[in-house]
């Protein structure tokens, strides 16, 4: 007889999620461009909402009723088809937990959000990674990886950490090629950074089909990562599944107030999008100018750029140079990208400084 509780074998396989660093090896606080947070912060309306008396002795609305109504108004969705979560991560976890388990497979592109393998391992499902094309998700390769054991397909679009975007026709083709009993989850954490009118069609698929779930977050463009608010939409039975699994009173009262205020200030989101577009374009231009040194910026539709180091300057050396210059960015050896750094788009001044540090490091190498 065992003398202590035994952890489930699939839980033992899990490596805890590793957040972006904010300190150097010497303990110095660095400017954190490693977690894709919003350099402009959040809307003044959000700050005002958070300053209101919260009544912390009372539980929040367990169903996030007002927030779901506002999300429905902004996106043209029936609030009954919306569920809110503690970040979009809770919604993603619920989707995998509800439809996959031991003996099943969870499929996604090789270079996808680092949370995805953890979601599969938590429920004892097998991880299957479809090969990418120049690092980006490839619909043909995803479909070729589907087996009779596939239960959930996760697609982050725009992709994290690559930054690429699958257009509507490709997402529709992916969905059309999947068996009806396979759940397609379209993770749109970075959708607010897309150009006006650019849409992968995920919401329309979720409205029309029983096997599509779309997730969103308030952590990125809305700038309220600290409040941990996300949401998902899909067919009634999918929303019902997530409601069964989510935590009771999962979205705090302050989080609900902050998200409501954020949704009401779409002008702030446009300001964030414009600033991100300008700073990202300029940064990519500067990295491309270093192409002879082996640096390459992959195309990005998000608030970060993945820079590949394919010459003499290594990602490790660049990481150290940036830390010396006061910046924390994301090195990704654990995701099969030891030669890459994911760099969050900060302010224009910050991106100019990062480009200068990389230029100096490349020229000195």
TrEMBL record:
NCBIfam families: hisC (TIGR01141). Belongs to the class-II pyridoxal-phosphate-dependent aminotransferase family. Histidinol-phosphate aminotransferase subfamily. The keyword Manganese does not apply. Its EC number is 2.6.1.9. The keyword Translocase does not apply. Homodimer. InterPro entries: Aminotrans_II_pyridoxalP_BS, Aminotransferase_I/II_large, HisP_aminotrans, HistidinolP_aminotransfase, PyrdxlP-dep_Trfase, PyrdxlP-dep_Trfase_major, PyrdxlP-dep_Trfase_small. CDD domains: AAT_like. This is Histidinol-phosphate aminotransferase. GO terms for molecular function: histidinol-phosphate transaminase activity. Coiled coil: none annotated. Residues 29-356 form the Aminotransferase class I/classII large domain. Pathway: Amino-acid biosynthesis; L-histidine biosynthesis; L-histidine from 5-phospho-alpha-D-ribose 1-diphosphate: step 7/9. It comes from the Bacteria. Transmembrane segments: none annotated. It catalyses: L-histidinol phosphate + 2-oxoglutarate = 3-(imidazol-4-yl)-2-oxopropyl phosphate + L-glutamate. The modification N6-(pyridoxal phosphate)lysine is found at residue 220. Gene3D superfamilies: Aspartate Aminotransferase, domain 1, Type I PLP-dependent aspartate aminotransferase-like (Major domain). Its cofactor is pyridoxal 5'-phosphate.
């Amino acid at each position: 007889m065992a003398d202590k509780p035994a952890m489930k074998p699939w839980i033992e396989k899990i490596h805890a999620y590793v957040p972006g660093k904010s300190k150097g090896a010497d303990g110095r606080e660095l400017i954190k461009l490693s977690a894709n947070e919003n350099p402009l912060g959040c809307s003044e309306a959000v700050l005002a909402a958070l300053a209101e008396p919260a009544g912390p002795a009372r539980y929040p609305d367990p169903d996030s009723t007002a927030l779901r109504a506002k999300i429905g108004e902004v996106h043209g969705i029936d609030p009954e088809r919306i569920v809110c979560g503690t970040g979009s991560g809770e919604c993603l976890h619920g989707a995998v937990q509800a439809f996959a388990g031991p003996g099943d497979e969870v499929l996604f592109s090789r270079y996808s959000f680092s949370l995805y393998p953890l979601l599969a391992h938590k429920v004892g499902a097998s991880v299957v990674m479809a090969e990418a094309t120049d690092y980006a998700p490839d619909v043909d390769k995803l479909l070729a990886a589907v087996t009779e054991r596939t239960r959930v397909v996760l697609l982050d679009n725009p992709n994290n950490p690559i930054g690429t975007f699958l257009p509507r026709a490709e997402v529709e083709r992916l969905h059309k090629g999947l068996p009806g009993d396979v759940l397609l989850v379209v993770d749109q954490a970075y959708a607010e950074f897309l150009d006006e009118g650019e849409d992968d069609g995920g919401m329309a698929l979720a409205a029309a089909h029983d096997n599509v779930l779309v997730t969103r977050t308030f952590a990125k463009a809305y700038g309220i990562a600290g409040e941990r608010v996300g949401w998902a939409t899909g067919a009634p039975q999918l929303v019902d599944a997530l409601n069964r699994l989510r935590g009771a009173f999962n979205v705090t009262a302050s989080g609900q107030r902050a998200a409501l205020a954020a949704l009401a200030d779409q002008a702030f989101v446009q300001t964030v999008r414009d600033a991100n577009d300008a700073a990202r374009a300029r940064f990519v231009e500067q990295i491309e100018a270093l192409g002879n040194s082996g640096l390459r910026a992959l195309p990005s539709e998000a608030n970060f750029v993945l820079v590949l180091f394919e010459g003499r300057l290594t990602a490790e050396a660049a990481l150290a140079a940036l830390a010396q210059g006061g910046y924390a960015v994301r090195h990704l050896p654990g995701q099969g990208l030891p030669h890459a750094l994911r760099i969050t788009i900060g302010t224009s001044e910050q991106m100019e400084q990062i480009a200068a540090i990389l230029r100096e490091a490349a020229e000195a190498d």
